[in-house]
């Protein structure tokens, strides 16, 4: 691959990437959106309903490489608890058990900047608190 000129992170629905959204992000740099959509949809088809981030690195000769990441922390928490609080800090948005917190931390561990599960759990708990979700 030639010298990297762009690195774009996309957050789209797994297995069903939106062509207009991809076109907005990739069109100005000359990346073929259909090729990206096909590869993204194939790679994420097993996780339909989740939002899977992907980092697309584009070289000066317009070749590109895609690397998938784990789903966003907030989407994993919402899948377990629900939507969270409309007013975090004022209204309770639900409860997340320690076992559920550990489950999310294990799944997010490859994308976090730690290898310690306890530190990863504290990071996930902070995100949950900012969503108005209590951890017990």
TrEMBL record:
Which CDD domains does the record cross-reference, listed alphabetically?
Ribosomal_L11 (cd00349)
Quote the InterPro entries the UniProt record gives.
Answer: Ribosomal_uL11 (IPR000911), Ribosomal_uL11_C (IPR020783), Ribosomal_uL11_C_sf (IPR036769), Ribosomal_uL11_CS (IPR020785), Ribosomal_uL11_N (IPR020784), Ribosomal_uL11_N_sf (IPR036796)
Q: What's in the keyword line of the UniProt record? A: Methylation, Ribonucleoprotein, Ribosomal protein, RNA-binding, rRNA-binding
What region holds the Large ribosomal subunit protein uL11 C-terminal domain? Answer: 69-135
Q: Does the keyword Magnesium apply?
A: no
User: Key word Ribosomal protein present in the record?
Assistant: yes
* An annotated GO cellular component: ribosome
Residue ranges of every copy of the Large ribosomal subunit protein uL11 N-terminal domain listed in the record: 8-63
| Processing after translation | One or more lysine residues are methylated.
**Pfam families, per this entry?**
Ribosomal_L11, Ribosomal_L11_N
Subunit record text: Part of the ribosomal stalk of the 50S ribosomal subunit. Interacts with L10 and the large rRNA to form the base of the stalk. L10 forms an elongated spine to which L12 dimers bind in a sequential fashion forming a multimeric L10(L12)X complex.
Q: What family is reported? A: Belongs to the universal ribosomal protein uL11 family.
Q: What is this protein called?
A: Large ribosomal subunit protein uL11
User: Organism, per UniProt?
Assistant: Antrihabitans spumae
């Amino acid at each position: 691959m030639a010298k990297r000129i762009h690195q774009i992170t996309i957050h789209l629905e797994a297995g069903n990437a939106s062509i207009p959204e991809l076109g907005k992000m990739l069109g100005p740099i000359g990346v073929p959106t259909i090729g990206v959509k096909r590869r993204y949809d194939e790679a994420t088809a097993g996780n339909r309903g989740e939002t899977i981030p992907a980092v697309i690195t584009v070289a000066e000769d317009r070749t590109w490489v895609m690397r998938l990441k784990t789903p966003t922390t907030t989407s994993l928490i919402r899948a377990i608890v629900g939507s969270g609080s409309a007013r975090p800090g004022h209204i309770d948005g639900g409860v997340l058990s320690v076992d559920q917190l550990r489950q999310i931390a294990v799944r997010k561990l490859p994308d976090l900047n730690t290898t310690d599960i306890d530190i990863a759990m504290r990071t996930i708990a902070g995100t949950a608190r900012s969503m108005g979700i209590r951890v017990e």
